[in-house]
Amino acid sequence: MKTLSKKIKMIVALMAAIVFSGTTLTYAYAESFTVASVSNNYDYKDVTGSGGSSFQTNIFSVKDSSGTTYDALCVLPKKASPPVNATYSSGEWTYDCRRTKIYFYGLGSGASSGPLSDFTYNQRVILTHACLAYEGGDPDWNGGSWNLLGQAGATGYDAVMELYKYAGEHGLPDGYNAATIYLTADGTNSPYQNLVAYWEEYTEPRGWIELHKSSSNTAITNNNDNYSLEGAVYGIYSDSDLKNLVTTIKTDASGLAVSTWLSKGTYYIREWSAGKGYDVDITTHSVSITEANKATNVYVTEVPQKGAIQLHKYSAMPSISDNNNCYSLEGAIYGVYTDYACTQLYTRLTADKNGNASVSDLPYKTYYIKEISASKGFELSSEVFTCNVNSTTAVKVDAPEIPGNDPISLVLSKRTADGHGSGNARLEGAEYTVKYYDTVLDTDPAQSGYSPKYTWVFKTDENGRISLRQDYLISGDNLIYQNGHCVLPLGTVTIQETKAPEGYLINDTIYVAQTILENNYVKTTNLPTEEKAAQETPYEGTISIQKFLGGSDAVKTSEPDAEFEIYLKSAGSYDAAPEESRQIITTDTNGYALTKRLPYGTYTIHQTKGNNKYYFINDVDVTISENNANYHKILENAPIEFYVKIVKKDVDTGNTVNVAGATFELYDDTGAKVSFKTMTTSGIQTIDSFTTDEKGCIYTVEKLLKGNYTLVETKAPEGYVLDSTPVAFTVSEDTYTTDSGVAIVIAEKSDKAVTGQLTVIKTGEVLDEYKGGLYVNPDEKGFTYKEGSLSGAKFNAYAAEDIYTADNQKDSSGNRIKLYGKGELVTTLVTGVDGKATANNLPLGKYKVVEVEAPDGYILNSDEQMVTFVYVDDKTPVIYESLTFSDDRQKVELSVSKLDSETGEPVSGAVFGLFTKEDIVNADGKVIVSKDTLLEKAVSDSKGLIRFVKDYPLGSYYAKEINAPAGYISSDEIIDFDAAYQGQDIKSVELTAVFLNMPSTYKFTKTDITSGAELTGATLTVLDKDGNIVDTWTSDAKEAHVIKRLVVGETYTLREEYAPYGYLKATDIQFTVKDTGEVQHVNMKDEVARGSIVVTKDGEIVSDATIRKEYWNNLVFNFLKRNLSGVTFDVYAKEDILSVDGLNTVYYKAGDKISTIVTDEKGIARIDNLPCGKYYLIETKTIDGFILDNTPIEADLSYIDQDTNIVYAGMNVTNERQKVQISVIKTDSETKKVLEGAVFGLFTKEDIVNADGKVIVNADTQIEKAVTGKDGKVTFTSDLPLGQYYVKELEAPAGYVKSNKVIDVDATYKGDNVKVIELEAAFENAPIKVEFSKTDITGEKELPEAKLSVIDSEGKIVESWISEAGKSHVIERLPVGKYTLREESAPYGYKVAVDVTFEITETSEIQKVIMKDEQAVGRIIINKSDSVTGSPIEGVVFEIRDKDGKVLDTLTTDKNGYAESKLLPICTYNKDGSYKEDIHYTVIETKAANGYILDETSYDVVLKYSDNAPVCIEETVKLTNTPKPDIPKTGDTGNVYRYALLALLSLVVIVSLAMMKKNRNQKN
To answer: Quick one: CA dihedral 162, 165, 169, 173, positive or negative?
Structure first.
C-alpha cells in the first residue's frame, strides 16, 4: 500500500505540474525560436554610475514554433544583440534549477523578496543579465578585462554574486512554477548573443484527499472477484448538509480514491455508489485540508453483501417418469461446492417431493452445484451448475434429471439353430410382440396379474434383428423417445414370436428382460440378442450328379474323379459360402456323386477337376425348397482344340511385315516337330514348315489340341535380320481369339529391319607450334599450323529419294507408307572432339549431306555429298558408310596509330610490343605461348603507323608502348585486341587502335598540416641525387612553384631550410620523377604539437564464491578489480582551443564537446591528435553492473616546445559496482500480523558466471538462510553479484504451514544511477487448523457436554473445552507434532472414550480428529434366596420387560440363585445425541422353584448412570421366595407356630422391598 500511495502521489504531483506549467509543458523540446521584438537599451551605468551607453543590454521577446512568446536575456555580453527575426536552436525547458531561480528572483515574481529588491528595475535587468552569463560559465560575464561591474567589493559585482548564491540556496515559493530554456544562435561562428528565455506561473497552494476503502470481512472478499473495492463513487461537499458538491472521486482496485486539488478547508464525503458486491455506506465522513501539497487521508470500511441459491429438480423426460412407479424426485441430494472440480463441499441441498431445495447467507462468489445422490429411478447427474452469486437476488438453478432409461439399439436378434445352416432362409419378416410393465420382475409379469403399460409389434430386418426404432414397428402403442432416440423406461418387457420368417418354423418362447439402474448405469438384461439370440430351424434337402464325357458326335462315357463344388449361390463363391451351405463332391467309377443335407436355398454346381482335354461344364443352379427332397442333375463335357495363325511383325513398329518369305517350324511340348499330312495332286504330302505370304501370315491346315508349343524362324523376309530365338505359345480355351468367325490361336514372331550407319568426318588447319629457339628474338618466331579434326561442325542429312518403311505397310489409299520424302531433313549431325559425327538406324535408301554450321574459327564449306544404303542379306543387320569435309581457318590482322596528345600529329620512333593476353593453346591442348608473352616489336613510322605482321591465330592480345619518343612521357595505356571469331562467312579479322603521348611537369607547394592553408616564407631547395642544387625559392601562399623537364626516373630531394614561425621543421621529402603525363605535385606540410588523453577504467567483478557451511550464509562471493571495457566518456574543451597559424582559428570553444571515447577490453579509452590546450572528461555511460561517476576529470595538454611532438595526459578511474539488498516480510495470511521465526533461504535462479565465463555457483544453490524477527522482517546480508535469485520459505513459524510460494528476485542491472537495488519479498503463512469432533459411535452426531483436552508430547495441556451439540471445535496455530486427545468426562449416558493419539502435519488443509463415544449399557442381576433360610434358590424364571410389556430377556437362576440379563441400554437420547431420560425396566417372576410360592410382584429397575461412566452399569435385585406351607394336622401346635413365624418373616421382607422401591423412585 505504501508503494501504491507513492505512485499515486507521483501521479498527483505530475497532474499538479501539468496544471501549473501553462503552455510550456505542451512540449519538452522546441526545435527553434525567433526574436519577435527587442526592448530599449539598458545601460551598465545604471548600476555602476559610469561606463556610458557603450555597454548595454536588452530584454528580448522570443517566439517558439507554436507562436508562444517569452521574455529572454542574453548570456554572452561581449557579442552583438540579435535583430528581429534572428533564429535560435533550443535545449530543454528546465524547472527549479539555479538558472531559473536567478531569473525568478532577479526579474520575476520573486524580485520583491530577493536580494535585488533594493535595486531599480533597470538595474535588476543588468544584474540579472550578468548573473545568468556568470551561471552559464561565460568568462566575459563582467565585460572581460574591463570589469564593467567592478570587482569584489563593488556594488554591481557583489549584487551579482549575492543573486547567484541566493538562487542556489532558495527554492520557489509555494504556488509558483517557473522554467528557463537556453537558446543558441543559429549559423556557424554567429556574431549574435545566446539567450535564456523565461516562463513562470502562479497557482493558489492546495492539497488533496486520499480515501482508503477496505472490506469489513476480508475472509470472504480477499481474492474474490465478486467483490471489488474499485469503482465506488464518493461525493465531496463543502457543507455538512451535502448540498454543495465540490467534486467526485472513484476508487481504484486497491480501494484508493484521490481527489483533484482542493483549497484548504473542511469537506464532507458521502458514498454515492458502492463497489461491486458491497452495500452503500451512508456515513458522512468529515475531513479537513490544513497543509498545501499534501494528501489528507480518510479510511472507510464496506460491508460485503450475501446471496442465495434456489434449486429446482425436474424430470427431463416426463413422458417416461410421470405416473411411473419406478421413478420419484424426492430425496435427491446436491452438493454446493466452491471449486469446479467439486472437491470443496460448502453445504448440501436435499430435494422435496416436488424437486425443490434452497440455501441462503452465501458470500458472493462462484458456487458449483453437483448432484451427490440421485432420487429413485433417476440417473446421477454429472452436470456441474455454475452459480455466480453476486447479488442479493437468489440464483435459480433448474436441474433437469434424466430418468433412467436404456436407449437400446437392439431388442432381439435371430439366428439359425445350432448345428444347422441357414442357406437362403431369410431371418427378415419375423413378427414379435413386445410388452412393457412398470415393475421389475424376473418372470412374466402377466403371470403375476400385471397388465402391460405399452404393447408393440415389431418385424425383423434382413439380419434377423429388431431395433427399438419406428421403422421396425408395425403396430401397437407409440414408442418413447429421448433426444430423438427410442428408449426403454425402467421396468420389465416380454418378447414373443407371433409369425415365422421365410424358410423357418415359428419359435413360441417368451423372453423376459429387465431394464434396471445400478451404480448410475442403466442396463437391460436377458434380451434375446447376440449369444442369447432366438434360434430358428430351416428346411433341408440333397443334390445328386451323373457325369459323362463327349460332345454331340462322341460316345458318352461316365467320367470318374470329376470334382465339383456345391455352394450357396448367393454367397458368390465356394470360399465365401458357410460351411453348412457348401460341399466338395467327387464322382465315383460310375460318374455318380451325392451331397450331404443342405439348408433351404439355391445352390451352384461348379466343376473344379476333370479331364483337362475337355471343357468343364458351365455352372448349374439347383434350388432346395422342400424339406427332405433330393434334386438330381445329368452333366457332360466337350474337347478343346484350335487352328493356329502365324504372323510376322516388325520389332520396331509392331506392324505386320507385308513381305512374303518368312519361314517357320512348329514344335510341341515334347520337342517333336509338328507336321500335317494333306492330300495333293501328287498324293499325300507332309507339311512341317510354314512360309508367310505377302500379308505376312500363314494358317495351320488342321487344329492343334490344347497344349504348349514353340515357333522357330528359319528364314527372314527381305529387308529384315533373321532371329532364330524360339517363341513359346499355348493353345487353350484361354488363348484363342476369332478370325472371320473361326476360333484360332495367334503365334507372332518379330524381326528387326536392316538399317544404315553414316559417319561424317570434319578436318581443317589447326594450330600446331610457335617455332623458334629459347633465346631467339621474338620477331624471328612464328606460328605453324597442321591438318586436324574439327569439332562443332554441324551437318544436315536429307533424303535424296523417297524412303519407305521396310514392312511394306500401305496407307488408306493403298500407297506404301513413306518415312521421308525426297529432300526432307532426316537428321542433324554435330562433330565431336574427334571430328566425327554418326547417324544410326537410318532406313535403307539414298541421302544428301550438307554442312550448315562451321566450327568456331573456320569458314563454312558449302559442297554437297551423296551416300546410299543397300540391303545385303538377313545376316547383315547394319550397312556402314562415311563422308569427309574440310574447312579453311579465319585469319588475323592488327595495327596501332601513334599521335601527339596536344597537337594530334603522328609521332614516329615509338616502340610498341604485342603481347598475349591469355595463354595460347594448340589443337592438342598444349600451351605453346604463355600469357603476357611478347610476340612481336614494331616501331611507328613517319605516319605514326605500327603494324604486326605475323600469322596470328584467333585470340586475345594487347599492345603497349615499350619506349617513348624523346621529350615525351611514356604511357601505361594498354590497347586490347579481341581477335575473336567473327562468324563463318568472314575470312579475316582486322583490328586497329590510336595511342597518344604527353610531356612531363612538376609543381611544389608549402601548407599548414592542420588547416591546410598555403604558407608564405618557407625557404625551400630541390637537390639532385648528387646533392647539387637544382632550384631554391621562398614559398608564396598565392601560387605554387613549377619546375619542368626533370629527368624521368631520377630521384630528387625537397628540403626546408627555414620553417615559418610557430611550426616544427619538416623532414626532407624525396621524390622520383614519374613517367606520367599528369602535373606531378610535391606538398611539404608543417606540423604543430598534438596531444593524447588516456583513461584506464576498472571496477569490482565477481571472481568466485567461498563455501562456509558453519554459517547461515553458506556462500560468500569474492570480488576482484578488473579493467572495464565499454565505459563511455565525453571529452570537452576546458578553454578555447585556438590555431597557432596566426589566424586564431577556434578549434573548440570552452565547454564544447569534442568526442566520445569508450574503454577497450583492457579498460583503456584514449583520444589522440588533439590540439594543445586544457580539456576535461565526463563519464556518460558505464557498463551494466556499475554506477555512473560523472565527476569531471581534468586533462592538461598545454604546448611544451617545438621539439615535443606529442603531449600526454593519463589517469586511472574506478567505478563502484551496483549492490543488491533483498529483504523478506512475513505475515499471517488471515490476521495479516507479522510473524517471527520463519526461516527463509536465498537461492540462485540461474548459474552465477564470473568474468571468465566460468560457473562459480550453479543454479538453485542456497546462498544464505535468514530468520524473521519480531517485526516479521529479515534482510539477507550476503554481498550479491547482480543476477536472478529467488526466495523461498524453509521453515514455517510454529503453528503455521510453510508457504510453497517461490518469489523470483530480479536483481539484474537497474541503471547507472541506482547504487543499491532494494527488493522486498512478501510471504504469508496459513495457520495450521485442527478440527476436533466428538461424536457418538455412528460418527453422525456431534455430542454436547464432553470435557476434552489436547495434551502435547510432554504431557502439557494445550487446550481444554466442553463440546457443543452439532458443532466441532477448532484449534488454530497448533505446532507440528504428536498430541493426545483425552476425554476428561463423557456426556451423560456415554462411556469415557479411549485416548486418541494424533499427529499434526504441516498442511493448509483442516486436519480432523474424531473421538467417538459409545452409549453406556448395563445389565440387571438377580439374587434369589429362600425367605426363611436365606439359601439360594435355583430354577426361578424371570422376564425383563420394557415399558410396553415387551419381553426383552428371560433369566433363570443357577444353583447360587444368580441370574444376569444381556446388555441393555440405560437411557434414551435426543436427536442431537444428548441424554433424554432413563429407561425403566420391569422384572417379573414367571415361574417359582418347586416348593416355593410364585412372587407376582413387578419390580421397577433403572440402570442408573454415574459420572465415572463405568464400562457396564449393573443393578442387583435381591429377591426371596416363600416356601409353600405344609397342611397342619389336628393337635399339631408346633406346625402352627412354625407357620406363624414364617408369615411374620414374609411380612418383614415385603415391607423392606416396598421401602427400597420408594427410595428408588425418590432418587429418580
So the answer is: positive
**Burial track 616-643 (b if 16+ CB lie within 10 A, e otherwise):** bbeebebebeeeeeebeeebbbeebbbb
d(Cα 1007, Cα 1084) in Å, to the nearest integer? 6
pLDDT score of 2 more than 90: no
Residue 969 to residue 753: CA distance in whole angstroms: 79
Cα-to-chain-centroid distance, residue 957: 65
CA distances from 455 to 187, 451, 469, 492, 526 (A): 111, 10, 14, 12, 19
Write out pLDDT tens, residues 114-129: 999 999 999 999 999 9
CA–CA gap between residue 380 and residue 367 (Å, rounded) = 19
Q: Is 269 exposed, middle or buried (0-12, 13-18, 19+ CB in 10 A)?
A: buried
Determine the Cα–Cα distance for residues 224 and 234; give it in Å rounded to an integer.
23
* DSSP strands (E only) in 901-1000: 911-916, 920-921, 927-929, 934-939, 945-948, 955-963, 974-979, 988-997
Answer positive or negative: Cα dihedral of 1539, 1544, 1545, 1549.
positive
Determine the average pLDDT of the residues in 37-58: 76
Q: Report in angstroms the alpha-carbon separations of 1391 from 581, 717, 1416, 1418, 1461.
A: 81, 128, 5, 11, 20
Asked if 851 and 865 count as a contact pair (C-beta separation under 8 A), the reply is no
Nearest partner of 1149 among 1160, 1137, 1161, 1167, judged by Cα = 1137
User: Which residues are CB-neighbours of 1196 under 8 A, at least 6 positions away?
Assistant: 1174, 1175, 1209
**DSSP characters over 736-763:** -EEETTEEEEEEEEEEPBPEEEEEEEEE
**Cβ-count burial of 985 within 10 angstroms (0-12 exposed, 13-18 middle, 19+ buried)?**
exposed
Phi-psi region of 967 (alpha: psi -120 to 50; beta: other; left: phi over 0): left
- What residues form DSSP beta bridges with 31? none
Residues 799 and 820: their CA atoms lie apart, in Å, by 6
Instruction: Provide the CB-side half-sphere exposure for 664 (13 A, CA).
Output: 32
Q: How many CB atoms lie within 10 A of CB 913?
A: 18
CA torsion, ordered 770, 773, 777, 781, to nearest 10 deg:
-20
CA 858/CA 986 separation, integer angstroms:
9
Q: Residue 1507's closest CA among 1386, 1349, 1348, 1383?
A: 1386
Give the pLDDT of residue 1528: 45
Q: What is the arithmetic mean of pLDDT over 981-999?
A: 89
Q: How far is CA 951 from CA 857, 954, 1329, in A?
A: 14, 10, 116
pLDDT digits (tens, 9 = 90+) for 941-955: 989 899 998 889 999
Beta strands across the sheet bearing 208-215 = 256-258, 208-215, 295-302
State the DSSP H helix or E strand holding residue 314, giving kind and residue range, or none if neither: strand 306-315
User: pLDDT tens digits for 737-786?
Assistant: 998 888 898 999 898 999 999 999 999 999 999 887 666 677 788 899 99
Q: Are strands 195-202 and 176-185 parallel, antiparallel or unpaired?
A: antiparallel
The alpha-carbon radius of gyration of the chain (Å, integer) is 65
Cβ–Cβ < 8 Å for 666, 574: no
DSSP 8-state class, residue 160: H
The CA distances from residue 1094 to 92, 1157, 1164, 1193, 1512, in Å, are 32, 10, 7, 11, 104
CA angle 398, 404, 407 (to 5 degrees): 115
**870 — phi, psi (to 5°)?**
-125, 135
**Is residue 919 predicted with pLDDT exceeding 80?**
yes
Q: How far apart are CA 158 and CA 153, in angstroms?
A: 6
Residue at grid coordinates 581443317: 764
- Alpha carbon distance 888, 855 (integer Å): 10
- HEC string of 696-716 equals CEEECCCCEECEEEEEEEEEC
